[in-house]
Amino acid sequence: MEQVPRVLVTEKAKRVIDQLRDQHGELMFHQSGGCCDGSSPMCFKKGQFRIGMSDVLLGEIHGCEFYMSSSQFQYWKHTQLTVDITEGRGASFSLEIPLGIRFLIRSRPFTQEEIGNLTPVMEGVQGMK
């Protein structure tokens, strides 16, 4: 049985990621813990956001690593996250903001069947490629 991913991405968000990657090179995401634009996924040039031992790698979306703090993960670990976009400028440092859009998270709880087959997370800098 195939492992269930913890984070997914919509087709619309993939197109934005492609556009940003063309402009900035390799990208990464970090799920904001409430600063600036609430708790939005923030997109950075790979390596621009410093990943530490208090972060976990949830997986990859469209070739980009997706991290969040381990303390925040304790609240979100039972939900599958889907990165999407919406119109409107956010108040963050995320790369998509100048485009007049922002990334957002849609979530749903994992089913009992899925919980036993989730993609494992990697803690801290161990998950960095």
From TrEMBL:
Q: What Pfam families does UniProt report for this protein, alphabetically? A: DUF779
The record's annotation in InterPro entries points to:
DUF779
Kindly provide the name given to this protein in its UniProt entry.
UDP-glucose 4-epimerase
